[in-house]
Design a protein that fits this description.
Blueprint (H helix, E strand, L loop, with lengths): L1 H37 L5 E5 L6 H12 L1 H4 L3 E5 L6 H8 L7 E6 H10 L9 E11 L1 E5 L7 H10 L5 E4 L5 H13 L4 E4 L3 H9 L5 E4 L1 H10 L2 E6 L24 E9 L4 H15 L2 H9 L7 E2 H18 L2
Parallel strand pairs: 1-2, 1-3, 6-7
Antiparallel strand pairs: 3-10, 4-10, 4-11, 5-8, 5-9
């Protein structure tokens, strides 16, 4: 009897507790919705994973100059180097998923390296916002290198196994994969020195410390035009519009296809309304006429693919990349 009465008396208390919890939950949802409605209410950080002077920092600098009218807040560049881009990607994957930290990703961080080596994050830890560029890697030789075109470079490598030293970015980075594909096709032996990013890598070939390099048009284009580097070939199915006089490697008899992209990513748990806001903002930025003019000045061009469509493109790319490592 007493037990039954106690149970009946406790029901209103449980109901009140449940009601309080429900109200609290509604309050949380309301605050979250309000926060998303106000996004962004402070500057957004664009994390660059490589040292200054490479393709990532060059493109980020251009994007930051035109971003505010589209984004609603300034876009602030933050450089976090280490591990060939791995440190920056790991850091972004562990930050709050609120849309205020955007990663300038690339083909090696967000496609290749998680597939072929142990890294402290997964491909799925990031949500794609959009692809910015798609450029062929351009093979170049140092000004005083003992070869003037890709055929002469291959002949030199065959005659001098292991003596051709090229500037590389990182193991499994852009340049590393380009030369891996070339040596696999030609049966040659070349030696790479890793410098941690495109900026230091190109500086060393310019300084004559190495004999060759393969980099994005934005990085090597000005040095080709000034005569400081010799253009050898481009790793694409057609000639680069920014370097129309440089033949493709396939034209020269070496079917190396190695196109690299830069793109934007956020934490995988970023709320969908914020992801949608960022995708819309960066679509506007990348189609801005001023943006296109500035990109052209660094020997690059926009090749935008929006996030939803890009997911399928990335999956196909990852399957293709694995074949290089078979």
């Amino acid at each position: 009897m007493f037990t039954e009465r106690k149970r009946r008396q406790s029901r209103p208390r449980r109901m009140i507790s449940t009601l309080v919890a429900a109200v609290a939950a509604l309050g949380i949802v309301g605050l979250s919705g309000q926060a998303m409605a106000e996004y962004p209410d402070r500057p957004v950080r664009l994390v660059i994973p490589y040292p200054p002077g490479g393709g990532a920092s060059l493109h980020a600098g251009v994007i930051a100059t035109v971003a505010e009218p589209y984004l609603g807040q300034p876009l602030i560049m933050t450089i976090r180097v280490g591990g060939g881009g791995i440190k920056a990607a790991e850091w972004v994957s562990k930050q709050k998923a609120d849309g205020y930290i955007v990663l300038m990703g690339d083909i090696t961080i967000n496609s290749l390296r998680p597939l072929v080596e142990e890294v402290p994050f997964e491909i799925s830890d990031f949500t794609p916002i959009g692809r910015i560029t798609l450029d062929p890697l351009v093979f170049v030789g140092a000004k005083d290198a003992p070869f003037n075109n890709i055929n002469e470079m291959v002949d030199y490598a065959k005659a001098n196994p292991g003596e051709l030293v090229y500037s590389s970015d990182n193991v499994n980075g852009w340049t590393y994969v380009a030369f891996k594909a070339l040596t696999k096709i030609t049966g040659t032996e070349m030696r790479g020195i890793e410098f941690g990013g495109g900026g230091p890598a190109v500086a060393n070939v310019l300084g004559g410390h190495t004999m060759a390099y393969a980099g994005a048009p934005a990085v090597v284009g000005p040095h080709i035009q000034s005569g400081a580097l010799k253009p050898l070939c481009t790793g694409s199915t057609k000639r680069a519009t920014t370097l129309p006089d440089v033949p493709t490697c396939a034209e020269e008899g070496y079917p190396v296809q190695w196109e690299v992209w830069l793109g934007l990513f956020v934490h995988k748990d970023t709320p969908e309304p914020i992801v949608a806001h960022l995708r819309k903002a960066f679509t506007g930025i990348l189609h801005d006429k001023g943006m296109k003019r500035l990109i052209a000045k660094i020997n690059s061009e926009i090749n935008h693919v929006e996030g939803g469509e890009w997911v399928a493109v990335l999956k196909e790319e990852q399957e293709r990349l694995m074949k290089i490592y078979e």
